[in-house]
Amino acid sequence: MSKVIAKVRQWHDQSFGLVSYLQSPFLFLVRLYFGWQLAQSGWGKLHHLSGVAEYFGTLGLPMPAQMAVFIACVEFFGGIFLALGLLSRITGLVLTVNMIMAYVFGDHDALFSFISDPDKFVAAAPFAFLVVSLIVLIFGAGKISVDVAITLFFGSARVKQANSVPA
To answer: Hey, how many other C-beta atoms are within 10 angstroms of the C-beta on 7?
Structure first.
């Protein structure tokens, strides 16, 4: 019996070892697609600020004009940062809060139907962006990102500097 268990464990380790190579490309594609979508949404809001401000006013948000500019910038620049994998976890946190607030203020019926009618919750506009933001917040951007490139660049610079300093 132990040979069977050992064989299954070996198969499991090999299979999931191969699947783990897909993590960074998957994160890259998810970030790229949804980052682009979010940047487009923010760009659209930036070009229709009066309509966005009017909508925010109907929701009872304070300073709707300023809030429209802020949210449009968060979505536009957050989408770009998300797509690039730049400041990923901070971007993920900011976008997560933004999407939760979109549920709270813009679609609270869907938010409160989380248990009673999950289809309504999942069909709401902020859902996909919330999930992607949480994925990036929790798992990071993956190896295909500007964050990793910056770490490699500055990491190797630190190593060179540490090696060149006489002790």
So the answer is: 10
Tokens read off for 69: 């500019």
Q: Which two tokens stand for residue 12?
A: 């499991």
> DSSP assignment of the chain, as one string?
-HHHHHHHHHHHHHHHHHHHTTHHHHHHHHHHHHHHHHHHHHHHHHHTHHHHHHHHHHTT-SSHHHHHHHHHHHHHHHHHHHHHTSSHHHHHHHHHHHHHHIIIII-HHHHHTTTT-HHHHHHSTHHHHHHHHHHHHHH-S-SSSHHHHHHHHHHHHHHHHHHHS--
Q: How far is CA 68 from CA 7, 29, 52, 64, 121, in A?
A: 58, 29, 6, 6, 24
pLDDT digits (tens, 9 = 90+) for 118-160: 899 999 999 999 999 999 999 999 999 999 999 998 876 554 5
0.85 surpassed by pTM: no
Distance in angstroms (rounded) separating the CA atoms of residues 126 and 121: 9
The token pair that represents 31 in the structure block: 């970030």
In the block, tokens 């770009």 appear at 80
- Length of the chain in residues, anyone? 167
Domains of the chain by residue range: 25-164
